[in-house]
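cron nightly-structures :: item 1 of 1
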Amino acid sequence: MSNKVVMVSFIDSSNIGDQLISKMLDRELLSECEVRNFSYRYIADDYYSGGEVKRHGKRNSFYNKYVKKIKPVHALVSRLKWFNNYNKLKKQDSLALRGALRETGTLVIGGGNVIFDSSKYTYSARKFAHLLNIANKEGANVFVSSIGIGPFQTELQEKEAVEQLKRCSAVTVRDERSKAYCDKYGLETVVKSVDPVFLLPEEKKSSTLNSKHIGICVIDYRIAGVSYLEYKAYKQHLVELINQLHMIENAQITLFSTEKEDYNTIDELKKELLDSAFVSYQTVNNSEELLSLYATFDMLIGTRMHAMIIAASQCIPIVGLSWQQKVDEMFKNMALSDRCYGIPTLNDNQQEIVAAVTAILDNKEQYIEEASIIKQKLTAEFELVKQEFNKLIVEKR
């Protein structure tokens, strides 16, 4: 009879990358298990069901443009917002989750950036602790699979994150930075592996050796907590990069995202690129549509981490625009840090980015082969997660 487990993951997320994490863990790690899936809201089978693209209203725009730069006000709003969400979580009905944990005896934390704090006024480790408290009360072992932790704004946030991970039976992380946090605060048993989405099966490509189709995954940079002026500069420099890529390479460019909230920014860019016939725009609703789109790309310029991981899984060459440490760490995993550029320095590095894109488009076969080798290496590294999980299952028996 198969082992029974509960997996809590971001199955309810509008982010296609988050959705694929749980799918790939089901496929690659838990294929011989009977899995009960829950979201982090503690709801069973709480899968994302689509819906309209979110649009930020005038109130949100006013806040980002004027109020956010008033630090005491923004700090108070951030703190109140976090505590409101935390209190909602504590009141959430968890009876179904508790019953499933009693029945199975094993909780799998299913990947993603589980513990991080973009503000010094938030305490994401407390949310994680609440889930662990439920698991411990029901007598369940906890296996943490391929998570990322960080960034953090204070040492207290770092320490509390690792203290909570110490309560788990086994922990695997997806990058060196996450492991470094664990090492710093004495979690010696942590195992560094990779994100499971790297193992996504490669689909057949429709691009050709002579085509020059560049996909650009756009992010709403405001998610990083930047000011209105920084956000405005990001859009301006991205438009300049797009125009330069077309002028030099005569490339066709498609703007899209793997996160629905980013389409607000794509709409704004569309207005600024109104007369640019070489730019197209694609709304992507699910992983199937995304992979069909990727099959037409010769390369990807990415911002969203999983947009780039999915490209790597399809052996599509990538250049990264980093907005958070997890993007930097992903490129370190692939030994491609020289192709990752910070969004704050996008203007300064524009010529270098264009040169990297030109090199890829002029030598596609070479870069596709490189991507294939990287995928093989990372696929092998995921075996470490399987080994740790199998140890836990054996001990449970």
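cron nightly-structures :: done
The chain has two domains: 3-55+92-193+382-396, 213-377.
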